[in-house]
Amino acid sequence: MERGSRDPSLLTTKIAIPQSYLKRIIPRTSMHAQLDQGLQKPLTIVTAPAGFGKTTALSEWLRQRALKAAWVSLSNIDNDLTCFWRYIIAALDHPLPREEVEAWQQSSQPHNIEAMLTVLINALETTPEQTILVLDDYHTITEEAIHQSLTFLLEHLPAHVHIILATRVDPPLPLARFRVRGKLTELRTNPLRFTYQETCAFLKHSMGLTLSEADISTLHNKTEGWVAGLQLAALSLQDCIDPAASSHFIQTFNGTNRYILTYLTEEVLRHNTEEMQNFLLMTSILDCLYPTLCDAVTGQARSQLILEQLEQANLFLTKLDNQQYRYDHLFTDALRHRLKQTHPQLISELHTRASSWYEQNGFMGDAMHHALEAEARGSHILRQAQRALKTLAEEKEAQSPLWSVTQKSEDTFIEKLSEREFSVLCLIAQCLSNQEIAQRLVVTVSTVKTHLNNIYAKLHVHTRLQAVTRAYELGLLRRSEPETEPLTHRYHVERC
Question: pTM of the prediction?
């Protein structure tokens, strides 16, 4: 096939690098640097949920670096071995033997795909310039024969050829083998989240909004740097005619916003199985997700596997440690709203199950919270919660118990927490990961871990959950009333 010739039966827009329609593209310096480094290896995968700007980030990186690339925008209709490789060959636009290519393309049973790929690999080897192939939306490909053929290409790729896969889920390729051999670069959700500076630039320059620093900070924290969330919020803000209206919208903005709900429903929930949707809805009442806790709430014993599947699918899930996860804030809001719409009669029972699990495991602070949420009037847990809250109110002292507490029943002395340790305690009460706490406090992850170890030692606990529960029991933290403010402020903390 001669260079520049195109099959008229192929959509040329599928092999064109997408253009951005934003007023001004936000520089993604850190992410672009990681993509630069990835060119030293055969394969880069960019994996993140819907709306994290994978396509825009890649296309803008190619434009800024003036890199020539072959681009294929994939969809469900490309789950055909012949169709898939016809688009790739057309996008690469390399001089291949016309007779061999045409014979393969016209074959109704291209069983000898490796022979065709061998021709392609040999042609790429003779081409001196760097070649980049971007396969966008690779998660739409489910045909096993395509995965196998792409693996063959990757295993025999010439040194100057690089492949980038943009996908919502990890592709079923031998990633572990590529990883061990040093052939794989991975960019996942966190590098794609907007930093605070990028959020400022996006809202002010790309979307043309005039917002205060406080409002920008609030919106950034609520969206957690999720690009689509910021853009949907910005679209709504363009209807606000004065600063007061903008501030009110931002303060009340959450996952129940109609744009957010529609996006998450159409782009996320409806693409999951019924089992997965039920799991998401039922566990949305939880602020932190443990496998055994999720088992208790859902009434089944597959939570560990499902959480691992959600993590692999990058479904707005943050891993806090080996056994603890949380959903992104806006995703939680949207799930809870949908749960109220579809199964309102189930909510009280779910909270009751959660309360029982926490009580059985000795975490009375969270047991109290879920008992109150369940409106379990007259229950043992509620009476215990009321007594504990009354005791805390009566025992408030002028000096904050942040500094020293003696719990008479156990005769345990709680050593003074430093200001920074208290800040870390507040943030783990909001279920932030170590990385998120480090970004918020502008310290290293190692420093956060040191503070956590100090908190554990002083509170005589071993895990985040135990530390937060202990802090509530001692009155170091106070939980705000449920449903009175956005989820990002759900765990309001103050010194008593």
Answer: 0.66
